[in-house]
Amino acid sequence: MTAIDLSDGMLSKAIKKLKNKPNIKFMQMDIQSATFETNTFDTIIASYVFCSVPDPVKELKEISRVCKKEGKIILLEHVRSDNKIVGALMDLLNPLTVGMLGFNINRNTENNVVNSGLHSYLVKYLWFDIFRMLL
pLDDT in tens for each of the 135 residues of the chain? Predict the structure, then answer.
């Protein structure tokens, strides 16, 4: 198993939390420019990544590149609500979350998945229509 994160602080937390798991290789890396060979991984799991990356479509294409053709990509994300009122509120609050926390709360990740070329996927709603798993 390989775990990557751009943030040294987040990577350090993961290493401390999983220190008793010797089969995990931790690497500081930007998914936007991953150094892995094409078709390296059987399964890729990304959780709450595409709310904070500069170019989500580019990063999704990179994930697709390093995943084997028969492999599986699982995304756990929070996205902009499809509800008109909740979505508008998320749009209004987004500049605050970006400024204070560094992530977007109103990204359309499903659209980004399609735009990246990953057309075959299943969506599971986990909490209302904001937290979703894309398989």
Answer: 999 999 899 999 999 999 888 899 999 999 888 899 999 999 999 999 999 899 999 999 999 999 999 999 999 999 999 999 999 999 999 999 999 999 999 999 999 999 998 877 899 999 999 999 999
Provide the number of structural domains found in the chain.
1
Residues 6+ apart with CB under 8 A from 90: 80, 81, 105, 106
Spatial CA neighbour of 132 closest among 48, 59, 67, 40? 48
- We report the CATH number of the domain holding residue 101 as 3.40.50.150
Alpha helices in 18-102 (DSSP H): 56-66, 84-101
Q: For residue range 28-39, what is the model confidence (pLDDT) as tens digits?
A: 999 888 899 999
Which range marks the domain in which residue 101 is found?
A: 36-134
Dist. CA 56–CA 86, nearest whole Å? 22
